[in-house]
Protein 1
Amino acid sequence: MTRAASDSMVVLDNEDILVERHKMPDKHALSLLPEIYVERGTKDDWDLLHELHYKAENLGIGPRIFRCVLNGRTIGAGVMTVPKMLLSGRNELFTNLRPNQGGRDTKIINKYRAEWINAHACTNSRLVLDTVYRGAGIAYRMQNLMMRMTGCKLIEFQSSMSKFNPFAAKAGIRFTRPRRSASYERGLAWFRRWFESIPTDYVGIMAEIDAMSPVARGKCVAEMRKFYYDFSSMEKSGDNRMNGTRRVDALPVGKLLKNLQQLVFASPLYGVYANPDYNSAKKCPVKLPERLPLLAFDNQPTDAPLDLSKLLDAHER
């Protein structure tokens, strides 16, 4: 049995097996990339892949769905939604959109602000890719192209995962500095008062709740609901603002705990993509093809308009 050549590394070599890791070319690319396209999709495309996403339960308001297609088969899905009206990251980055500066806001100002945000922005809410095709540079290319195809001037992005996986930055999204949740310190104190498990340990905390006496369990869950409602702005804005505590009171304990942990420990990065295919002078988007090849991403920098001439040249060839 011969050993690997100088451009390879031997991972395992014994009487039964030889495992080698070959050095790949610096610009190696998946051969299927030229056959992949990005286009508008439907809820069916999201339903096909949503279980592979870590936030699979629901979608935001007004979802617009895009899909990544290989030979007619959906291998990726992305979702754009209506932006939130209140967002701390936006307030930090776009100071002119910050509400109630100096107490000067009126109903007209608030109404105009909401209309401007809805008319010019959307939120990149979800992106999921079939596990077979991950690691080939598809996700960030798809994300960039679907952001361009929205026609929006600004595409907002919130993600905790972006601290660990830089695909959104590769797509051209620029982030503000990460911050801890406003409820982090008081949330830690609350968890320590009630549980011995590590506060982020969902399984351990649920086991402690299940082991409590009925009276203690009832008191604990009631305090969970109170803490979550008191400090969750999401439960007091949007469609939830008229509910009072009804929605929170109806949450199953498992879902309530997940929401509480999200409230205390989540520190999503806020980012924004300024769409270069939006014509600010004419206040309208540039007309783009309804279907774009994935490799159109490579024809220009992320902050430059899509090079339509290269798309035409590729089509003619």
Protein 2
Amino acid sequence: MTYCVGLRLNDGLVFMSDTRTNAGVDNFSVTRKMFTWDVPGERVITLMTAGNLATTQALVSLLDERSKIVEERNPTILELPTMFQVARLVGATLKEVINDSASEGQEATSKFKASVIVGGQIKGGSPTLFMIYPEGNFIEITEDSPFFQIGEAKYGKPIIVRAYDPDMSFADTIKLLLVSFDSTIKANLSVGMPLDLQVYVKDSFEVTNKPRIEADDPYYNSVSTGWSDALKNALTQLPSYNED
């Protein structure tokens, strides 16, 4: 399992993903789940993956390979005119990988499934996000649904829902996402450090901020400790249950 979040603000986009993969309770490893393609001054496209690792790695490898062999694969994600068209291409490629991985006959393909968040901006359009399902279909971000999650989403979602505001600064948004990830990590062993973070500023058509947050990061630990203390203090201030 994994946990990835893509969130749209008035000032741009923020992406965060964990890096844990597991094949059982005693077999954990670290694998990147966030990938970016860009043409400076013209487009930035970021993709995050969750699900079967072989499927997601094949998806990213195919997209990357086809973006470099333009004469054989045209158009590529580096040439498509809109983010909608990019989402269609990613969805079709994901479906292709899953179908190719499945055995012939009646065997279910669920073990090969994966889901994807793809977002970014192409010149002439606005920053946007899409969530792509294993079947290849997808939905786009809206004002009513301003963020997408894939993987182990249930523990971190309430925090984002309660605190998100499209006018938030990038700094406050990163703090919000760290709280969401910290709550998820504490509740589920299949999500873990380090975390990959990417901030995209609207109309910049470049990414300059792509840090990796390690488990010993001082700011992450201050947020984790501060959030735990704040929850304890809030609980003590709530009225006690009265059986009468």
